[in-house]
Design brief:
Blueprint lengths: L23 H7 L11 E6 L2 E5 L2 E5 L5 E5 L12 E2 L9 E12 L8 E2 L6 E12 L6 E8 L5 E3 L8 E8 L2 E9 L5 E8 L8 E7 L3 E10 L5 E8 L4 E7 L6 E2 L7 E2 L2 E11 L4 E12 L2 E13 L4 E5 L4 E8 L7 E7 L13 E6 L4 E3 L14 E4 L7 E7 L13 E6 L8 E2 H9 L10 E8 L5 E9 L2 E9 L1 H4 L2
Antiparallel strand pairs: 1-34, 2-3, 3-4, 4-5, 6-8, 7-8, 8-9, 9-10, 11-12, 12-13, 13-14, 15-16, 16-17, 17-18, 19-20, 20-21, 21-22, 22-23, 24-25, 25-26, 26-27, 28-29, 29-30, 30-31, 32-33, 33-34
Length: about 500
């Protein structure tokens, strides 16, 4: 796609994939058969909430709050290495480490924690990241970010009581870096870029660089490209207004995208912006907040999307009627492809304070495709909303569908996990809960007891993490699962 420099035209794109296109998903799920593999392609991996999988490494919340790292060998055997709890030397017993995610990183041959991943001869280790939290004082408070090394030992960004978080980690051609925010020496909360040891492949932090705000008091690094080259974020100006910003790894200041965003877009006043994701080719996606009349609300703040090309210094905007744009990922390549959620504005007078309707979307540089929602197997009508959680780089998304606005997207008992390939010739939802039961009950009778309500992530190997819930003697029992593609979409 060739960007028109500084284009401010925001057409309400009408390209829509109709719900009827997805009715085939039920037929697909109903025809699933038991996979003839050496071992079941679904594996229960632990309790509580599995956040993310990357090349066989899964991170989830353990029963003691601190994250658990779980590694599998080459699928479909699912032979688990010993589950490893995050090591927290020197940390107070009255604290815990909140999980943010996990990233696969190369590792020298023979390292005890390295193992082959599905479909690959590469060996590696999972690097976790998130927040370090301090309990007490009426609740948990953020103390600082953390990132693990190849020994699954946590490295905190600070040891004082100042807030911070690690939002993303990347290990690529640009090296190994963790990004987020931390408290700078001048006590302002600033974006943090922390270099990790990639040459020695220990991934311990070497040094950190602060990217200060634009005259204000706060900045945040929201993400980093997979090749560890481009960092995205937001930074406050002197008036406290957040600007979308980006930097190259190694920079000591942001490139401000604010001057490239007009004060008004199609007559709507712009109030703030933020950059949320970037691909290896320097395509950045983010959101701009404008005031407009929507869903019966007057002068209401709504997020529209933007795409910026670092190489051509050009920007374009995109929107969708009645919905906010929430970009999650920029797919690889120079042709623009952004995926995320459409978050529909609740009509004025709505009594619900629980869930807004979410739809997966794909923006291809010209059109926004609304994938509507899934009709779960056996249901008489489509879901109220289907929210994407963590997509992969292949255009595949997984997430959670809810039946009504009074059900939260974290309600495992009443929600339904879904899979959708946004780049398929005929995209069709897969009801993962039904697919697993149809395909795997004969080999894994235990999963029949679970309702798979949440698909929390999918990696580029088509492995996905699931949250299941069952009731034992009337008591809820939640568990995490890892599944490969033959289990949910053979």
């Amino acid at each position: 796609m060739s960007f028109k420099p500084f284009s401010v035209r925001c057409p309400h794109i009408v390209t829509v994939v109709r719900a009827a296109a997805f009715s085939a998903a039920i037929g697909v799920a109903a025809s699933l058969s038991v996979a003839a593999e050496a071992a079941p392609p679904v594996k229960k991996i632990g309790t509580d909430f599995a956040v993310q999988v990357d090349n066989g490494w899964v991170i989830y919340a353990g029963s003691q709050q601190n994250p658990i790292f779980y590694n599998t060998d080459a699928n479909p055997n699912f032979a688990a290495s010993k589950k490893t709890k995050l090591k927290t030397p020197g940390a107070s017993t009255d604290s815990f480490f909140a999980i943010g995610g996990i990233v696969f990183a190369p590792c020298p041959p023979g390292h005890g924690k390295c193992q082959s991943s599905e479909g690959s001869t590469a060996t590696g280790v999972g690097l976790g990241f998130g927040e370090y939290l301090l309990k007490g004082g009426g609740g948990a408070q953020s103390e600082g970010g953390w990132v693990s090394d190849n020994k699954i030992t946590a490295h905190r960004t600070n040891t004082d009581l100042n807030p911070g978080t690690i939002t993303a980690v990347a290990v690529g051609t640009g090296g190994a870096y963790a990004v987020g925010r931390d408290t700078a020496p001048n006590f302002t909360v600033q974006a943090l870029v922390m270099q990790l040891d990639s040459a020695g492949q220990t991934y311990v932090p070497l040094h950190k660089t602060f990217l200060p705000p634009l005259g204000g008091t706060q900045s945040l690094a929201t993400n980093i490209s997979k090749n560890a080259v481009f960092v995205t974020g937001s930074a406050d100006d002197a008036s406290g207004n957040p600007h979308a910003v980006y930097a190259h790894v190694g920079d000591t200041s942001w490139t401000d995208l604010g001057p490239k965003i007009p004060a008004q877009i199609e007559g709507h006043a712009v109030t703030k912006s933020r950059a949320l994701a970037a691909n290896d080719d320097g395509i950045i996606a983010g959101a701009v907040t404008v005031k407009e009349d929507v869903a019966g609300r007057t002068n209401f703040p709504v997020d529209i999307g933007f795409v910026y090309n670092v190489n051509t210094d050009s920007m374009a905007f995109f929107s969708f009627p009645g919905a906010e744009i929430a970009p999650l990922k920029v797919l690889p390549g120079t042709d623009v492809k952004v995926i995320g959620n459409l978050v529909f504005v609740k009509p004025k007078g709505s009594s619900s304070t629980t869930s807004a309707a979410n739809h997966p979307f794909l923006f291809d540089g010209s059109n926004v495709t609304d994938f509507l929602t899934m009709t779960p197997f056996g249901a008489s009508q489509p879901s109220f909303g289907c929210r994407v959680n963590r997509p992969n780089n292949l255009g595949e998304v997984v997430g959670t569908c809810v039946p009504d606005e009074n059900t939260t997207y974290s309600d495992t008992a009443n929600a339904t996990a879904f899979y959708l390939n946004t780049l398929a010739a005929s995209p069709a939802y897969i009801d993962i809960n039904h697919a697993l039961h149809s395909n795997e009950d004969a080999t894994i009778p235990g999963i029949k007891k679970y309702n798979f309500g949440i698909a929390s992530s999918i990696d580029d190997e088509d492995e996905l993490t699931l949250i299941g819930l069952r009731f034992v003697s009337g008591n809820p029992d939640q568990a995490s699962f890892l599944a490969v593609k033959s289990a949910y979409n053979p």
